[in-house]
Amino acid sequence: MTSYQFPEGFIWGTATAAYQIEGAVAEGGRKPSVWDTFSEMPNRIRDGTSGAIACDHYHRYASDVKLMAALGISAYRFSIAWSRIFPDGRGAINEAGVDFYKRLVDCLREQGITPYCTLFHWDSPQALETLYGSWRSREIAKDYGDYVLAFVQRLGDRITHWFTLNEISCFTHLGYAVDDLAPHAPGTQVSSRKEIWQTSHHALLAHGLGCQAIRAASPGPCFVALVDNPTVTVPINESAPHIAAAKQAFHTCGSNGGIIFPALTGAYSPMLLEALAQDAPDIQSGDLETICQPLDAIGLNIYTGTYVRAADNPLGYEALPFPSGYPRLHMPWLQIVPEAIYWSIRHVSETLNRPDLAVLMTENGCAAQDELNANREVIDTDRILYLRQYLKSAHRAVSENYPLEGYFLWSLMDNFEWSWGHDRRFGVIYTDYATQERIPKESFNWYAECILQNRVV
User: Fold this and answer.
1) Which one of 107, 119, 156, 255 is at 20 to 30 Å from 80 when CA atoms are compared?
2) Of the candidates 173, 293, 162, 274, which has an alpha carbon nearest to the alpha carbon of residue 230?
3) Would you call 13 exposed, middle or buried from its count of C-beta atoms within 10 A (0-12, 13-18, 19+)?
4) Which residues, in sequence order, are CB contacts of 285 under 8 Å at separation 6+?
């Protein structure tokens, strides 16, 4: 029997994002982001809430860091609100915003927790949306690079681990391919599929310029990575034909071929370009060299997967729909597919041919229907079941010598879950939004024990 023991030095962490936890949206010189604007629109947020207060982490970060220390994590992944640093997206820097992150990072370091900083997690400055349409314009790549350079110049003495962008497909493809229904993300409805792909191409350029800026500004050696949420194609069973089909499908499922492929290989997947035809983005001379920067790792956000089987059709595969009774947790898309972690890592090494590249699981977790019992406890055994199976899949990757080096659970605490508002809870700490009380759930204790024993318990 396996003990599911992880190697010595394995990184255990949790993750959050600025707009989802910080609140204080008009304090310390911060101006609106696109998410502030989006949240004020009628019918965009399911329960009518916003990130205006969220978890009030801006004021409560010190006590939140003490909870992280109690959990036992060695690493904490958080994001920077661009509009705290450059309230207008460009121009004059706001040192008061910089100082907040200095205080947070100093607090983490005092507790022995390594800060892993995501420089962009969806909340671009509203000023840039007004000025030129955010990700519709190549200008945003330069403005992002300038923001990164200025921030790393100020925090590079405290932070050595950097992520450029989080989940490009979500803030581009989900934000710009919108109709009259409430979309998942802010954006502007565009008129063609080509324009949608152009937004993600601009984001890839921002990633490349951001990598260059981090390395230019860092006063010492640093760690630089991109965070992606690929659509993970999982063979329906691990026979040779189905494995080959899953690898083939990885090129064209979701936006893989146009995001993780160019970022890690320097080229869009030829299969995707053939499928897009005239809808492929315009790629200028030198773009792909800018996009494909040397990385120290790839961060993967994995929640679910897509089962694939070999098929006698021109594609050679077919993606399989989930039956109506398939188990899922508290999101419509959150089918339980633990093998997705293993296959996401294997696809990086084999399908993308990057066995040299380290992998961090930068997000994994689930929404559950958490309720306080009479003793003000949350007994979230459904979340523990989910996490246990996914961590076993992560352990399989490690045991087969794929280069997984760490795991960041999403999320530290319940927070503003984007267009779902406060209606979905992903945390291992329960947030009572009325009082801002933090209540560790049973999954908090379970995860703490995994960290303590360095294995899946």
Assistant:
1) 255
2) 173
3) buried
4) none
Beta bridge mates, 437: 432
The answer to whether residues 225 and 296 touch, using CB atoms and an 8 Å cutoff, is yes
Query: What's the rounded Cα separation, in Å, for the pair 121 and 19?
Result: 8
Let me know if 167 is a catalytic residue.
Answer: yes
Q: Which of 82, 162, 164, 197 is nearest to 129 (CA)?
A: 82
H-only helix segments in 72-167: 82-85, 95-110, 126-132, 139-155
DSSP class of residue 238 equals: -
Q: What are phi and psi of 51, to 5 degrees?
A: -90, 15
Joined together, the tokens standing for residue 297 give: 């790792």
Q: Looking at 22, 129, 167, 417, which residue is catalytic? A: 167
Per-residue pLDDT of the chain (457 residues; tens, 9 = 90+): 679 999 999 999 999 999 999 999 999 999 999 999 999 999 889 999 999 999 999 999 999 999 999 999 999 999 999 999 999 999 999 999 999 999 999 999 999 999 999 999 999 999 999 999 999 999 999 999 999 999 999 999 999 999 999 999 999 999 888 664 545 678 878 889 999 999 999 999 999 999 999 999 999 999 999 999 999 999 999 999 999 999 999 999 999 999 999 999 999 999 999 999 999 999 999 999 999 999 999 999 999 999 999 999 999 999 999 999 999 999 999 999 999 999 999 999 999 999 999 999 999 999 999 999 999 999 999 999 999 999 999 999 999 999 999 999 999 999 999 999 999 999 999 999 999 999 999 999 999 999 999 999 9
Instruction: Identify the DSSP state of 282.
Output: P
Return the structure tokens found at 28: 């310390």
Quote the CA–CA distance of 333 and 395 in Å, as a whole number: 24
Residue 363 annotated as catalytic = yes
Single out the residue of 50, 19, 9, 36 nearest to residue 411, CA to CA. 19
Domain 11-453: give its CATH code.
Answer: 3.20.20.80
**Which of 129, 339, 363, 417 is flagged as catalytic?**
363
